[in-house]
Design a protein that fits this description.
By secondary structure, the chain is α/β, with parallel strands linked by helices. It contains 15 helices and 17 strands. It folds into 2 domains: 252 residues, Aldolase class I (TIM Barrel, Alpha-Beta Barrel); 78 residues, Arc Repressor Mutant, subunit A, CATH 1.10.10.920. It has a 9-stranded mixed beta sheet with strand order 9-10-8-7-6-5-4-1-11, sandwiched between helices. It has a 3-stranded antiparallel beta sheet with strand order 12-13-14. A 3-stranded antiparallel beta sheet has the order 15-17-16. Helix 11 packs antiparallel against helix 15. The two termini are 30 Å apart.
Length: 393
């Protein structure tokens, strides 16, 4: 492997679990969003948190034999929750399991003020993920966002002044009427902000969103071509490689600033999702797993948070191993197959697929350890298809 293609070392998450709380409340419906959300005039913050804590007490016992390492509030718009609700949630979680190593709040830039930033720090948050999405006014309008570039800059300043310097900034590329030079301008703004972590997401059009309707009706364009998207990814690497090297297909950070919560999920550690529309995964000792997901009705959840599981799935050991591998290969994690496989026999079932991927230049594989190549990242869907064929040859 050449020096430029060597993966930067990533910490291996060998124990512990993660807690995710989905906060569905939003001020508006963004046209591209297909997450579970509810547009409300008044956020039932404390009531929602109390329901989450009820669910936590009912579902946490199988997880609690290991340490809780991260807490992540996603949405929706978690920064809409009042400070008293956020403080209650973090402190009650800490009272049950100890204060997690990383506590993240997703926030919209317009919600960040000196007062809210200070309150979040006092509540126990250690990291904030800002949904900036773009610095260009025309793109922000098209995306239906409620902030402008000045508010994004101010949000970062307010967080740093409050002592919350562990900041992630989200940007989206592949927008209508966006070319490579436009995207480089976004990246240059990002460098001026100097966040320790960034997430760069390709715009995807999901069924049921307003954006899907716009495209179907011809109101929006058909979207960026594959060649244009690849050119934007290449420009990201050219502009950011020195200061924010990539450690996952869509994520870059300064050394040591990895998102621990995401890293644990990508490496297959168990996670408990609470709240409306939240997902969870529990691993069993035999290598099998169970996944489940809550329904998306807020009032039902507030009335009976422990009765909202609508989807439950059992995953056999081979399928679970394959899924863990192709997710982990989105990162620069070096995987020891024989440590990850619950039995030698299951590991041997993977060998032909890994040898094929190595021949195609998608992974480095020495018979024990594997890691994705730069080509494997660019063609991750092809890599995943080879792995999934092991389960359904």
């Amino acid at each position: 492997m050449g020096e430029r293609d060597k993966p930067a070392p990533l910490p291996l998450c060998r124990s512990g679990w993660s807690l995710y709380v989905h906060v569905p409340f939003c001020r508006r419906r963004c046209p591209y969003c297909d997450f579970t959300f509810a547009v409300v005039r008044e956020v039932p913050g404390v009531a929602y948190v109390r329901a989450v804590l009820t669910e936590l007490d009912g579902r946490a016992p199988p997880f609690a034999a290991q340490p809780l390492r991260t807490l992540y509030l996603g949405g929706g718009t978690p920064s809409l929750l009042p400070s008293e609700a956020l403080h209650l949630l973090v402190q009650e979680v800490a009272a049950r399991f100890g204060h997690p190593q990383e506590v993240t709040l997703e926030a919209n830039p317009e919600d960040v003020t000196p007062a809210t930033a200070a309150a979040w720090r006092a509540a126990g948050f250690t990291r904030v993920s800002l949904g900036v999405q773009s610095f260009a006014a025309r793109h922000l309008r098209w995306l239906g966002r409620g902030h402008d570039a000045a508010q994004a800059l101010a949000a970062v300043a307010h967080l740093r002044a409050a002592g919350l310097s562990n900041i992630n900034v989200d940007l989206i590329f592949g927008l209508d009427h966006q070319d490579v030079d436009d995207w480089e301008g976004e990246l240059r703004h990002l460098l001026d902000l100097a966040p320790p972590h960034v997430s760069l997401y390709e715009l995807t059009v999901e069924a049921g969103t307003r954006l899907a309707t716009w495209r179907r009706r011809g109101v929006a364009s058909a979207g960026a071509s594959e060649d244009l998207l690849l050119a934007m990814m290449a420009r990201s690497e050219a502009v950011l490689a020195e200061t924010l090297p990539a450690y996952e297909v869509s994520n870059r950070c300064q050394p040591g600033a990895h998102a621990l919560h995401n890293l644990m999920v990508w490496q297959g550690r168990p996670y408990l999702g609470l709240g409306v529309g939240a997902h969870a995964m529990w691993r069993r000792d035999d290598g099998s797993a169970e996944r489940w997901a809550n329904g998306n009705k807020v009032l039902r959840y507030l009335r009976a948070p422990l009765e909202q599981v609508q989807v439950r799935e059992d995953i056999d050991p081979l399928t679970h191993l394959v899924e863990r591998l192709f997710v982990a290969l989105r990162t620069r994690t070096e995987i020891d197959l024989w440590a990850w496989a619950p039995t030698r026999a299951l590991g041997e079932l993977m060998r032909p697929a890994l040898e094929r991927l190595a021949q195609q230049g998608l992974v480095h594989w020495d018979g024990q350890r594997l890691v994705a190549t730069a080509r494997g990242w660019r063609l991750h869907n092809a890599l995943a298809r080879v792995l999934m064929a092991v389960c359904d040859p």
